[in-house]
Amino acid sequence: MQKVKIYYSVLQYVPSEIRQERLNVGIAFHVPNLQIAKFVYTNDINRLATFDKEWDEEFYTITMQALAENISSKSTSREDELLIVESDEYLKAKTEYLANEFQFRDVASLVSDKENIEADIARLAQVFL
User: Residue 115, SS3?
Assistant: First the structure.
């Protein structure tokens, strides 16, 4: 079995830096060997509404859709190159610009095999979301 590394970064919703409360709302994935880059996010509206009474569903949906599009698309030749490089640089480049209510954690990785990539990605999403 061919070993494949999955890089991922968890997106957290932080309504107030003062309270230091965080809720995992999304996760970005990058698999360089297969040139896969994608973002999945929670649709659990009740969980978000319970976590923050001032939460804005429309803003959340627009932001998550934009992140999904941005992470899965290449917009520069540097990102084209990084998509196939075995490192966490692609996700860092795609996630480092957020700093307000939504913040990505540091990029982590998991070793999988080619046959189980989708199942491992689904398990990671289930664990964090």
Answer: helix
* Residue 98 pLDDT exceeds 80: no
Q: What is the DSSP letter of 107?
A: P
pTM listed for this prediction:
0.90
Confidence at residue 117, expressed as pLDDT on a 0 to 100 scale:
93
Each residue's pLDDT tens digit, 82-93: 777 788 999 998
The label of the residue with tokens 């230091």 reads 20
* Helix or strand (DSSP H, E) at 91: helix 89-95
DSSP assignment string, 9-54: EEEEE-S-TTTT--EEEEEEEEEGGGTEEEEEE---HHHHHHH-TT
> Do 51 and 23 contact (CB within 8 A), yes or no?
yes
Cα(50)–Cα(30) distance, integer angstroms: 31
Count CB-CB contacts under 10 A for residue 70. 15
The DSSP 8-state label assigned to residue 8 in this structure reads: E
